[in-house]
Design brief:
Blueprint: H1 8-16, E1 26-35, E2 44-53, E3 59-65, E4 71-78, E5 81-88, E6 92-96, H2 101-113, H3 120-124, E7 129-134, E8 137-144, E9 147-155, E10 161-172, E11 175-191, E12 194-206, E13 209-223
Antiparallel strand pairs: 1-2, 1-13, 2-3, 3-4, 4-5, 5-6, 7-8, 8-9, 9-10, 10-11, 11-12, 12-13
Length: 224
């Protein structure tokens, strides 16, 4: 279904991914993989559940990390309010990110980056700004209050989202620093009429080199 507010190339992308212009809900899925903090050496296994809204910039990600999943990590952007926390057994706070502008920009960028997991948002989230740079390079922007976020999306030879790139605030030792942030998507599969990537990787650029922080796969994708 075409959307008059979008450039033709973006409409073509949404249709290629099987997006529905009348969908008014969330995309749900599970994740498994490994993650680590910026600058850390040790990888930790995780399992997670996530939902992403197709209609506005909202998502919630809850992961279980460590032995028996004792540590719960939450990232979210709900009703324009960002959240990030780490709790032991879901009760004892271990870390909590301050809900300031840096966290808001970071969570807004995460929403934009993960649109391939909720392609209906291309049609349905009218708060997004799209610019066609080339046939295989789009820029996506969004704003919450006075905080702006912009992300580059690159397509592969088949016209599917393959890589994202942005400057995102990275938290390390309680301090946010703007760093280059990138991710890749692959292994697209057809589910409920949509093409959804099932493998992804995320990294920051540290000292001029990529530093991976997230490697995972998704499953049990559904829309509701």
């Amino acid at each position: 279904m075409a959307a008059a507010h979008l450039p033709d190339r973006v409409i073509e992308l949404a249709e290629r991914l099987g997006a529905e212009g009348t969908f008014a809900g969330h995309c749900h899925f599970r994740q498994t993989g490994t993650l680590r903090n910026v600058g850390a050496k040790k990888w930790m296994r995780f399992t997670a559940r996530q939902w992403i809204s197709a209609n506005d910039c909202q998502f919630r990600w809850v992961a279980r990390v460590g032995l028996m999943g004792a540590v719960r990590v939450t990232d979210a952007l709900l009703h324009d309010i960002p959240a990030g926390s780490v709790k032991l057994f879901g009760l004892v706070p271990l870390a909590r990110a301050s809900a300031g502008d840096d966290l808001l920009k970071g969570q807004l960028l995460r929403y934009l980056a993960e649109l391939p997991w909720c392609p209906d948002g291309i049609f349905c989230n009218r708060s997004l700004r799209w610019e066609v740079v080339t046939d295989t390079h789009f820029q996506i922007g969004a704003r919450i209050k006075y905080v702006e976020a912009e992300l580059n999306l690159f397509l592969d030879d088949e016209g599917l989202p393959a890589r994202i790139q942005a400057i995102r605030p990275a938290e390390q030792d309680g301090v946010f620093t703007d760093r280059e942030w990138q991710g890749t998507f692959r292994d697209y599969r057809r589910i409920e009429g949509r093409l959804i990537p099932h493998v992804a990787r995320v990294w920051w650029t540290l000292d001029g080199a990529p530093f991976d922080v997230w490697r995972g796969t998704i499953g049990n994708w559904s829309s509701s």
